[in-house]
Amino acid sequence: MNKNVDWLNLITSYFVFAFIYSGVIWFIWQFLFAPFFNIDFTYLQVLGAYTIGRLLFGNTNTSYVSNIYTQKTPDLNKIDDYLKDMEDRLNREADEVEEQYKNLNKKD
After folding, report:
1. Quick one: CA torsion of 84, 86, 91, 96, rounded to 10 degrees?
2. C-alpha separations of 92 from 41, 50, 97, 101 in Å
3. Prediction pTM value
4. Domain count of the chain?
5. What is the rounded distance in angstroms from the CA atom of residue 96 to the CA atom of residue 88?
6. Do residues 78 and 103 share a domain?
7. If you ran DSSP here, which 8-state letter would residue 71 be given?
8. Rounded to an integer, what distance in angstroms lies between the CA atom of residue 19 and that of residue 44?
9. Residue 108 pLDDT more than 70?
10. Cα Rg, the chain, nearest whole Å
11. In this structure, are 67 and 81 located in the same domain?
12. Do 32 and 82 fall into the same domain?
């Protein structure tokens, strides 16, 4: 089991809010669209459709959904280190490309 997973945050973002979002979708459908289309859905049907849609089209591999509801601030030092590493890597690649072009000019 992964010790870095915040299980409470995961449960609240994926399960509790699924019930809330499904309720909102069901409420909007029942009172705004059902009278016009003559199609009634139960709450469980909407919950199932929402869950299937979330599984098929939702990105569950990232934690951005749960980050919306958390008060935790991102680790800015970690982000800064990542950006510096990326900049160093790009600078090394740029130097390699420049060196290749210098070698090409020497051959001519």
Report:
1. 150
2. 59, 47, 9, 14
3. 0.45
4. 2
5. 12
6. yes
7. -
8. 10
9. no
10. 25
11. no
12. no
Q: Are 46 and 67 found together in one domain?
A: yes
Are 104 and 61 found together in one domain? no
Structure tokens at 47: 């919950």
Mean pLDDT score, 11-18: 77
> Based on the domain organization, do 17 and 60 belong to the same domain?
yes
Token pair 């280190």: residue: 81
Q: Find the angle CA(80)-CA(73)-CA(19) to the nearest 5 degrees.
A: 130
Model pLDDT for residues 19-57, shown as the tens digit of each residue = 888 999 999 999 898 888 888 899 999 999 888 887 777
Report how far residue 96's alpha carbon sits from residue 90's, in angstroms, rounded to the nearest whole number: 10
Q: Which two tokens stand for residue 63?
A: 């934690």
Structural domain including 3 reads: 1-72
Q: How long, in residues, is the chain?
A: 108
Tokens of 59: 């990105």
* Helices 17-28 and 43-57, axial angle in degrees (round to 10): 120
Is residue 61 domain-shared with residue 83, that is, in the same domain?
Answer: no
